[in-house]
Write a structure and sequence with these properties.
This protein is mainly beta. Helices cover 6% and strands 58% of the residues. A hairpin with a 4-residue loop joins strand 4 and strand 5.
Length: 220
Amino acid sequence: MQRSTTLRALTLAGLLAPAAMIPAHATAANADVSAGDWLLRGGLTHVAPKSDNGNLDASGLGLSANAPADVGSNTRPSGNITYMMTDNLGLELLVAIPFKHDLNVGGVDIGSTRHLPPTLSLQYHFNTGTAVRPYIGAGINYTHFFDEDTADVTGQDIDLDDSWGAAVQAGIDFAVDENWFVNAEVRWIDIETDVSLGTADLGTVKIDPWTFGMNVGYRF
């Protein structure tokens, strides 16, 4: 838990660093958005699953019938696009290159999986008349797990079911000029998946990650 908390704190501090890189003349830029604007962002997202991912029946792996599961973190290129429906309300779609997570049960690596996490969110943008524009959002996430790579433990395939869940976010855009801006954001996503080994159900893994993103954006 301490390792996970420290990692999140350091990552969030790093994501806020773009504010320090804004040149002095950026204070004259206005980050306010208007109805009909499109906001395109691209950068990196770090996915940090919570530290306690639940317990699985790993007796089929020669382990405990109540073994703790652990899902590794990962960082990948990502992007999102927002359409401003009004001066304050925007609809955002999050996309990314597939994330890869290592899976560990009872201290034994059992394989890895990739996932795609498209997320649709309704955002509220706080127009401030300055170079800084914070926003918050909430929506729904669909996580598709695929390409499970099973470690040579039993020779059986591991499968993870797809997941639907809620997602919330907060972010800040920093205007560099009339169109370009830099962005830092954080999200929490409700992701739970049922895990099976061959035909045997092992149980449910609760991933529920925090994600931290740093992006460059363009308004048009």
